[in-house]
UniProtKB/TrEMBL annotation, chains A, B:
CDD domains attached to this UniProt entry: AAT_like
Record protein name field: PLP-dependent aminotransferase family protein
GO aspect biological process, one term: alpha-amino acid metabolic process
Keyword Ribosomal protein: no
Keyword tags: Aminotransferase, Pyridoxal phosphate, Transferase
Organism: Leptospira noumeaensis
Ranges where the Aminotransferase class I/classII large domain occurs: 52-388
Length: 397, 397
């Protein structure tokens, strides 16, 4: 935190609270609309079926308004939990009572941090890691360890080293189209790692927020689906990328043993998830051609990705990245730069990206930047890449 | 928790998680619709202006859909924060940047617990206390102390004793139409206690969820408005009672010093509050005659309260209670009963109330029961009171 706080008044855990540079960058880009931003992680709202939303709203107000406008079950709206089981999960042991609907998958991270992380609990992360997980877990002050990532998943040599030398309690990972790297674990690695998790009796928090964003419409089997110890595995899902972040809904698949505890913590956090949104999303899922909708998102993002790839190859061939199979980002390595200086010069030159440091569990400096392609028009992307290229050449000549 | 948990896998704080008997009672009443329930705390959805909602939804979909369906500012939707300052606060130092919109006022309690409560922090509560606060604070494992309540606020003799003998860090209270007691602090006590809080440098968490439910339309000045130390006072508000719990929105007025920290914790919890609901509620506030709406809620609840009072006087004159000035409950003392036995017999006889034990910071046994009058029709209330009277006479003859 930048502000000096009267620590005598705050709990010790507040000194571990992590703020987000992304938020600061977003503020800058809102203040100064001349800055072209690859920094966000915003889904494209044009992909949302707005006409359908109107008719669904009418139906909800006509037929379900007393449910939609009331408090609800702390575990979530019953119909929606059934739909999640039917449409959005692949583990065989799941039932509606396994599902707790959360206020975005981010809330699932906070609740699982609260349940599993004491001061100095060993928690293994991917490096790079989803920033929101660092923000959710940090106040509980676990001991973070991290495993280096390759484009097809964790480096197995390092993973086995870490597991054999430390008592790892929780492993948090984002195996499909990871934010920020868009790395996706191969099926082979999924199976191997599921076995390792079973052997070492490790709780796995599998973040599947991007599960359905494969450019070809492929859906990877979850790592959890390969585990024998289904009492030690939690899967997080989200409606933010496949429908809209505005409904602020996600879910967690909770093993039976932990369901009462999870619900009690959820209740203490906020009583129950937004009932109005739950009824609307449930009705949307009932009404819409969901598979068709997914395909249209997937092919739109594929198209956007290809254009950004083309622009970088064309205007800045020094930039290195692996081609993602899905998601909303390119994870770009700009060789021979000082990342802080590069970012500041980019901002001065009217273009924003998120520096890789933000996603490092140890805040290590990095020459990587996360570039979002889901939100910008092609013209803006082109102008943005040109501005980055100008800055890069300025620095490197 | 009833379920045996493999504690080796859970954080220490989970042993302090409190589940809610209310939830168990609600489950029973859902399973068995023959049970007439005074147990809930549900606002009456018939008071909601549904026609207006239809037209507001149309406008939102037409005019604000890209904002409503996107991620939002972690502090809340700017327009709504301005409206909160204009319509729903009385402290002079407030500005839109003081407001963070939360996922119900319950989330405000969790965030403030996270920020201020370490293991063994001295936290003063009212006795009886709002159950949700116990649920939110308990996982942070503070040391709870409590002050006995009178119908016009805390007993001042005991309060001064406690403050002079203990270093109290936080005082949480619900000064207007408290849940469960509906006790309301007099203006005189508000001023005196504000001074005491200043003298002892205590952080005050003022829960104003029921602020606008006065039967006569009166609005008490907040305790915080009498404080000189406005850097040590937080006010929680809610849209659940004045509009609808379905939108799951509340807010916290945060002193400047803590705004960055509060926002960072909010971000870790769930990124931002439900953007769709925020846009809809903002548009509703813009469109509706808010004062007229409040008056109609207030007079409906007054009417309901008077009927329940009449029924108890008529059928069960042994029941003792003070007449509330507002809110949704009667806090009823049933003399000469064993509360556990009384509750069980009531449930067997098809009627539910919440036993006072639930609201005791020390889980002390109590002959009080919380009876809700906001939700039931008059016929149902009459049948319910008759059933309670039958059980009472069975036990006491």
């Amino acid at each position: 935190m930048e502000t000096e706080l009267p620590t005598i008044f705050s709990a010790k855990r507040t000194s571990y609270v992590r703020s987000s540079v992304i938020r600061e960058i977003l503020k800058l880009t809102v203040k100064n609309s001349d800055i072209l931003s690859f920094a966000g992680g915003l889904p494209n709202p044009d992909l949302f079926p707005k006409d359908l939303l109107s008719s669904v709203m009418e139906t909800v107000i006509r037929e379900n308004v007393s449910i939609a406008l009331q408090y609800g079950d702390s575990s979530g709206y019953a119909n929606l939990r059934i739909q999640i089981v039917e449409k959005l999960t692949d583990v065989p042991w799941v039932s509606p009572s396994s599902i707790t609907v959360t206020h975005g998958s981010q809330q699932g991270l906070d609740i699982l941090g609260k349940i599993f992380m004491d001061s100095h609990t060993n928690v293994l992360l991917e490096d790079p890691v989803y920033l929101g997980a660092l923000q959710a877990f940090s106040p509980y002050h676990p001991n973070f360890l991290s495993v280096p990532m390759e484009s097809d998943g964790p480096n197995l040599y390092f993973l086995e080293e870490i597991l054999s030398q430390n008592k790892i309690h929780v492993f948090y990972a984002n195996p499909s189209y990871q934010n920020p790297s868009t790395y996706t674990w191969s099926v082979e690695k999924r199976i191997k790692i599921a076995n390792l998790l079973d052997t070492y009796e490790i709780i796995f928090i599998e973040d599947e927020a991007y599960r359905y964003l494969d450019f070809d419409g492929k859906v990877y089997p979850s790592v959890s689906s390969f585990r024998k110890r289904n009492d030690l595995t939690f899967i997080l899902g989200s409606f933010s990328k496949i429908l809209s972040p505005g409904f602020r809904l996600g879910f967690v698949i909770v093993p039976e043993l932990y369901q009462n505890l999870f619900t009690a913590v959820k209740q203490g956090n906020d009583l129950n998830s937004n009932q109005f949104s739950q009824v609307v999303v449930s009705k949307l899922l009932e009404t819409m051609d969901f598979d068709f909708h997914l395909r249209s998102i997937q092919s739109f993002y594929q198209n956007q990705k290809e254009y950004l790839v083309y622009l970088l190859n064309q205007f800045l061939p020094e930039a290195k990245f692996s081609l993602p199979e899905g998601g909303m980002f390119l994870w770009v390595n700009y060789p021979k730069i000082n990342s802080k200086q590069f970012m500041e010069s980019c901002l001065k030159n009217g273009v924003a990206m998120v520096p890789g440091t933000e996603f490092s569990p140890s805040s290590r400096s990095s020459s990587y930047f996360r570039m979002n392609f889901s939100f910008l028009t092609k013209d803006v992307m082109e102008e943005g890449v040109k501005r980055i290229a100008d800055v890069y050449r300025d620095i490197n000549t």
